[in-house]
Amino acid sequence: MKNLHFKDFFWNSDLTSTAGYDAIVQYLNDGKRTCKEAEDFMKARASIEEKYAKDLLGLSKKVCGHNEMNTLKRSLDMLKLQTEHVSLSHLQLSHSLREEAKKLEEFREKQKDARKKVEQQMDALHKQKASQYKKTMDSKKTYEQKCRDKEEADQNVNRNTNTSNTKHIEKLFSKAQQAKQNAEEADRLYQQNVTAVGKVRDEWLKEHIKACEMFEKQSMERINFLRNTVWTHLNLLSQQCVTSDELYEEVRKSFEQCDVQEDIEHFVNLRRIDDKPPALVVYENFYSGQRAQPGAPPSRPPPQNPRRGPLPDPTENNDVIYSTVQDAGYSVIQY
Asked: Compositional bias of type Pro residues: which residue ranges (predicted)?
């Protein structure tokens, strides 16, 4: 299939018309506006990434698991560390996006300067072409009018050929002769202007073709550059996703090493108190035995073998009876 080109499809039957040229220029202006919009889009995305990076950096500095211990603490510290790394990677991404936007801005300005020279030249040719065409059309009208004046003067001479007034005939001949000279002069000027406008047209045609080729080349470069720039923009965003995932993978690996039982045992070994619970609280009857006084030392338990025998029965004999000491080690001192 044959490729279509600007130079083949933007002509007009009216020599003074600039409709085809204006359509191309409008297309270029729209393309320039598209570049500016894409540039603003990328700058806005860079600002978003920068703000996100700063927010992440602030988040990484917040307390998280300060009182935790052992493997879980190490994993939470890894989470904060990698969050900081992710924030730095997003900050770098924002710088890269701004660099791409700057390249697009420079490309747009470069095309603008190149177009400006061609447009100025074409505008001058359009004015020259319109001026010369108008001049030619005016000379044509003058030429046609002079021709009609000549024909009228010739007709007057022919109508008065048989008149006897010699002076009147001479006057008519003089007018006819003057009309003929005027018509010839108008014809010469008209032909001169036609030649001039032809030269202007030829120059305009060549410059119009050159401008079309140059504008078409610019359009192709713009489309290709904008496509590649957006492609690079997306690659940077995709790479950021990969980088973030790699950093998060380090956190996942750390949490894989987080051992629940080890953390429990670590806490027990670090903060243990005793391995025996308090004794059971027993019931003590008030009437069974002498209650210990508060704060008094515990009483000595009674000996297994009593030191003296049973007391005598006083009803059996009125005589005084003293107890006998059967144990040679007996003593009244209790200890």
From this structure: 295-313
Q: What is the mean pLDDT of residues 142-158?
A: 89
Q: Of 229-233, 282-286, 306-310, which has the strongest mean pLDDT?
A: 229-233
pTM over 0.85: no
Residue 305, pLDDT > 60, answer no
